């Protein structure tokens, strides 16, 4: 019975309503949703605030973000370890064909029996995987701080509050994603 609830794909509107509800609650509480600021808060807790004003933060005001990220980590662990999906992710046939042209074979399952990503490119014993993960992490982290927020903060909170800088940032995210997908990714893989 639980498998019937957890594993099938849910309709997109369920996620949309959940995000809208959380955003409404945060707005009513005077908070803005975003994840990248939490990195700044963690650096401040680790002592970076003593060296640089940028990392100083009010623990009483911003501690909720630490709990939010902690919940995301615990939720990801529960979803990935306790309730791993035994089925391959459903991809459109055009997407599968495009991936095969790049040399990525769509897996029915990975080495653990989960069907989320191709092992050939995302194995932790592969130097290529580490380089891609570290370079991507640096670029995402730098970009989110440079843009004064991450994709979730700008696209969800910023757009719902009708902020022009967030609209411009989201447009930039999409342009960057398209350039990466169509021009850079084929050369990386």
Rg for CA atoms: 19 Å
What is the H/E string?
A: HHHHHHHH
First-to-last CA distance = 41 Å
Largest sheet: none
Number of helices: 8
Strand content: under 5%
Name the average pLDDT.
79
Low-confidence parts: none
Q: Give me the count of strands.
A: 0
Shape: globular
Helix-strand makeup class: mainly alpha
Could you estimate the helical fraction of the residues in percent? 55-70%
Question: Could you characterize what this model shows?
Answer:
With 189 residues, the chain is mainly alpha-helical. It has a domain at 1-83. The protein has helices at residues 2-6, 12-28, 36-45, 59-82, 93-101, 127-146, 151-160, 164-188. α7 (151-160) packs antiparallel against α8 (164-188). The longest helix has 25 residues, at 164-188. It is globular and about 50 Å long.
List the helices and strands and how they pair.
Elements (H helix, E strand, L loop, with lengths): L1 H5 L5 H17 L7 H10 L13 H24 L10 H9 L25 H20 L4 H10 L3 H25 L1
Helix pairs in contact: 3-4, 7-8
Summarize the model shown:
The chain is mainly α. The chain is 63% helix and 0% strand. Helix 3 (36-45) packs across helix 4 and helix 7 (151-160) packs antiparallel against helix 8.
Question: Keywords for this structure?
Answer:
189 residues, mainly alpha, 63% helix, globular
């Amino acid at each position: 019975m639980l498998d019937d609830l957890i594993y099938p794909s849910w309709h997109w509107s369920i996620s949309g309503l959940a995000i809208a509800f959380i955003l409404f609650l945060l707005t009513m509480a005077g908070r803005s949703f975003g994840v990248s600021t939490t990195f700044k808060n963690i650096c401040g807790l680790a002592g970076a605030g003593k060296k640089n004003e940028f990392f100083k933060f009010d623990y009483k005001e911003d501690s909720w973000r630490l709990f939010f990220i902690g919940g995301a980590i615990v939720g990801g662990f529960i979803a990935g370890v306790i309730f791993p999906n035994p089925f391959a992710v459903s991809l459109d046939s055009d997407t599968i064909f495009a991936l095969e042209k790049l040399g990525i074979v769509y897996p029915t399952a990975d080495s653990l029996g989960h069907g989320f990503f191709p092992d050939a490119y995302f194995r932790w014993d592969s130097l290529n995987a580490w380089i891609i993960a570290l370079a991507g992490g640096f670029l995402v982290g730098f970009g989110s701080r440079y843009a004064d927020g991450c994709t979730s903060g700008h696209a969800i909170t910023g757009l719902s509050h009708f902020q022009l800088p967030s609209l411009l940032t989201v447009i930039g995210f999409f342009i960057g994603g398209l350039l990466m997908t169509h021009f850079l990714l084929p050369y990386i893989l």
